[in-house]
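step: validate -> pass
step: tokenize input -> pass
step: predict -> running
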Amino acid sequence: MPSSLFDALNASGAAQTQTGIDPNFMAQLNQFRNTIAPLLNGANPQSLVQSILAQRGYSPAQIQQMFNQYAAQASAIQKQLMGG
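step: predict -> pass
step: emit ->
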């Protein structure tokens, strides 16, 4: 299930295995953490992501649409994990 939020942050796009899990996901996640963690320093993570996306040319409406899509995907995954 692709996510435009991850696409916008250049965190997706690698080949996927038959299970649908990106084999480089953990490496990408660690790279993302190592890049973002020093910047946070107590800042609101959502504001930080909005700022990064705005710098990359996304409008506030596009950013909100990506957040909404990501939230819906996260909810669907949570339901699946909870057996719903």
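step: describe -> The radius of gyration is 14 Å.
step: cleanup -> pass
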